[in-house]
Amino acid sequence: MEAIILAGGFGTRLRPFTFTRAKSLLPILNEPMIAHLIKTLPKKVDTVVLAVNYRREQIEEYFCSHDFGRTIIVNEEPEPLGTGGAVKFAEKHIVGNFFVLNADIICSLNLGEMLRFHERKKAVATISLWPVENVSEFGVVDIRNDGAITKFVEKPKAEDAPSDLINAGAYLLEPQVLNYIESGKLVSMEKEIFPQIIQNTGRFFGYKFQGHWIDVGRISSYLSVHRLLLEKQKKTFIQGEQCNVYGKLQLSCVGNKVTVGKNSSIDSSVLFDEVVVGENVTMDHCVIGQNVTIGDGVMLRNVAVGDNESIRQGTSLENAVVWNQPIPEGYPSKQIGNVIGE
Ligand code: GDD
Ligand code: MG
After folding, report:
1. How far is the CA of 103 from the centre of ligand 2 (A)?
2. Residue range 7-30: average pLDDT?
3. What is the C-alpha to C-alpha distance for residues 105 and 168, in angstroms, rounded to an integer?
4. In angstroms, what is the span from residue 190 Cα to ligand 1's centroid?
5. Are residues 285 and 198 part of one domain?
6. Are residues 101 and 168 in the same domain?
7. Pairing relation of β-strands 287-288 and 270-271?
8. Same domain, yes or no, for 196 and 253?
9. Which residues surround ligand 2, an ion (CB under 5 A)?
10. CATH of the domain at 49
């Protein structure tokens, strides 16, 4: 069985970290987000198709040096084709029914149970569902008691939302779904394909689950996912290899080869590899990119510092993004991804 992981897109809401890396390679507890996702796939899935475009070479490099016991196919679109277009572009690798997973979700969904639900319902498509309070950034469904979805609206205004149940970003599809998608075109699965399947087949189902669900789409949710996973593992911090930590880490995660100087206090933050933090530094709710240097006496609160930046000693910053390097060529100035036609 195959799983397509939608790992293209620029991750614009996670800049400056996505200026330099593919969103799916952002570390979560020191391991790329995409590795967490692959580990949740049922044994039955022996082939993983990575639908990529931006920073394809980084993803390829990561999978060359890490073995997941499955065939990994890096399927690069010539240009971003949207969530539907990317699935169609992977058609040549699909044999029977298959999973499609958004790469930016960390959750407790059991895909094996979802597969059994799909088979029991004889569904053409099953999507995972999760309840949220503010639905307007998601795909929202109307669902019957038997689990059949009667309506799917992508990013509706709050007053137009049919329920509080959102598309949680994991699908199980029968191959016939591919016939609804035109090849080589920018197509949104959520806006263009799902509504047609509901209308034409009446066999579009929703699978609800318990536990946790976080869309790691923004820096704030990137920090929340760390807090949640640290609490689940009952750890107050995690640190990588070859670190020299003389200060205090609280609900934080630091990568490999990180130094934290004396009397420094790091709270609810994530530091990537090779970060050097001086002495008497206070940090709260920050994400610090790879190879960043932070001088003595710095105070940071709600700050994102991009890779290879440095923060001069004594600086105080709040609610800021630090990026003083050129923006990579071709990087969009506004959000793209599946928000086609807005
Ligand atoms: N290969 C490829 N090509 N992947 C893409 C492309 C593309 O052109 N565009 C987006 N993706 C990938 C993204 O990397 C992400 O993993 C996934 O497709 C969804 O795109 P996002 O841009 O993150 O969409 P979203 O977060 O606004 O909304 C989606 O996720 C929500 C749940 O988090 C939708 O599926 C919503 O319906 C859903 O509720
Ligand atoms: Mg997303």
Report:
1. 8
2. 94
3. 8
4. 9
5. no
6. yes
7. parallel
8. no
9. 104, 217
10. 3.90.550.10
